[in-house]
Amino acid sequence: MNVSIVGATGYGGVELIRFLNNHPHLKIKSLHTSSQSGRSLYEENAHLMHMNDKLEEIDPEAIAKKSDIVFLATPSGVSSQLISEFSDLNIKVIDLSGDLRLQTPGEYEHWYKKTAAPHHIIEKAVYGLAEWNAEEIRQSTIIANPGCYPTAALLGLAPLFTEGWATATDVIIDAKSGVSGAGKSLSSVTHYSEMNENFKIYKVNQHQHIPEIEQQLGRWSSDLQPITFNTHLVPMTRGIMATMYIKVNRQTSTAELRDLYETVYEGHPFVRVQPLDRFPSTKQVYGSNFCDIGVAYDERTGKVTIVSVIDNLVKGAAGQAIQNANILMGLEETAGLWSSPLYP
Ligand SMILES: NC(=O)C1=CN([C@@H]2O[C@H](COP(=O)(O)OP(=O)(O)OC[C@H]3O[C@@H](n4cnc5c(N)ncnc54)[C@H](OP(=O)(O)O)[C@@H]3O)[C@@H](O)[C@H]2O)C=CC1
Ligand SMILES: CC(=O)N[C@@H](CCC(=O)OP(=O)(O)O)C(=O)O
Predict the structure, then answer these.
(1) Which of 74, 107, 110, 261 makes an SS bond possible with 102, Cβ 3.0 to 4.6 Å?
(2) Which of 296, 294, 280 lies closest to 341, judged by CA?
(3) What architecture is domain 149-312?
(4) Atom number, ligand 1, closest to the C-alpha of residue 15
(5) Tens digit of pLDDT for each residue in 10-48?
(6) Ligand 2 centre distance from Cα of residue 343 (Å)
(7) Is domain 2-124 annotated with CATH 3.30.70.100?
(8) Distance 140 CA to ligand 2 centre (A)
(9) What are the residues whose beta carbons fall under 8 Å from the beta carbon of 316, sequence distance 6 or more?
(10) Ranges for the Semialdehyde dehydrogenase NAD-binding domain (predicted)?
């Protein structure tokens, strides 16, 4: 099966290339750029010098003729325009941006401050939270790949809501990310002298992933109230840690809680529930498609603490996109993704 990548020169794009180069069934057919067509991939990305691929312009009809799937690793606002051109063609689309994730009209424009994709396309798009929406993904042609923070948060919260241990009435998510989450372009927020020896909170109560997390929580819990979700930048390249605090509706213990998570995620090889009283760190998932989760019950407050870590570029972007492609094409979910994290 052939695949093409639009936005091949960006962080999400090169991470797709890294995994697809080792995929047993999906073959990279073409790589596309809006600004560098005709150049070799390695001119922009020296680490890919062993590949001779040339970057091509974005011609949706030509891409649909040669590939079964196109990955859009393009910025929000760009994907929504490209998707209109691909949606009438015989090709499946996996969009890594936030453009197709929000189903309620007006929400996207409110949070992203950009024009939304056409509504008939948004309606066709399935939210690609791979561990939870596989059935829908299998029947779809357009996948809205989840955001990096929502992936970490939702995988961590899901068992409590789907198993009726909590209602989404008082959800607090405190999240931290490495700077590659902001993409490859330079910015005054992420450049070295701003981030080195620094730790900052940003987009306080304004983050565009708030409605995305609420949308999925609303599918699991009928009592959804607005959530508290805040994000921090950490001076590291990759990784997200989401720490969450939820009141549960029963007296329990950490051991019982951990059993719940273990049972829910049985058969989902990319989610690794940590041993009792152990909490994950971002380095243990670095460069991999794993989401590692640790849980604890606080008897004093009746609240649960959940710690969920992912690599933002893998499980939070390219890895989950390939996992979704595997589901979509009826392949083994782990194909091309079953590699150990980089350590140390
Ligand atoms: N970084 C992360 O951790 C995550 C990113 N995402 C999302 O994935 C998408 C890609 O992110 P990321 O790779 O980090 O971003 P980058 O900024 O690193 O890369 C963006 C890519 O888009 C291309 N591009 C820019 N403008 C246009 C345009 N007008 N038309 C077509 N292509 C364009 C750029 O290349 P060129 O100029 O060569 O065309 C570049 O390859 C974004 O929507 C982002 O929000 C989602 C989850 C996590
Ligand atoms: C560290 C950092 O800046 N991260 C980005 C995540 C970008 C992303 O995934 O945004 P989409 O919803 O457009 O896909 C942010 O907080 O905006």
Answers:
(1) 107
(2) 280
(3) 2-Layer Sandwich (3.30)
(4) 13
(5) 999 999 999 999 999 999 999 999 999 999 999 989 999
(6) 25
(7) no
(8) 25
(9) 146, 147, 148, 149, 151, 152, 181, 240, 310
(10) 2-140
